[in-house]
Inverse folding.
């Protein structure tokens, strides 16, 4: 007996066969729930991957910023030495 024949027989009969309906629902509802959970977890995984890529970009940017700041501090120290030398020269002249 095929599914189509079973549904046709069920629809043609005067009574309702709740066992068949219950069996269909017992299979259909968990399968739909499983598909929903799989789709939800897939998109959650994609969101985490995108966050990881963004965090890697921010980490790289932070490392570059620290390197730039170190370089700027070294240049500022050199500039401060030159300014001190010019101030000392002005004191000696004036």
């Amino acid at each position: 007996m095929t599914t189509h024949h079973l549904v046709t027989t069920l629809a043609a009969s005067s009574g309702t066969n709740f066992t068949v309906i219950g069996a269909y629902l017992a299979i259909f509802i968990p399968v739909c729930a499983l598909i929903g959970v799989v789709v939800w977890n897939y998109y959650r995984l994609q969101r985490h991957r995108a966050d990881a890529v963004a965090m890697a970009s921010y980490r790289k940017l932070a490392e570059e910023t620290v390197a730039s700041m170190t370089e700027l501090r070294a240049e500022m120290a050199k500039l401060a030495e030159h300014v001190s030398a010019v101030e000392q020269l002005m004191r000696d002249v004036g």
The two ends are 114 Å apart (CA to CA).
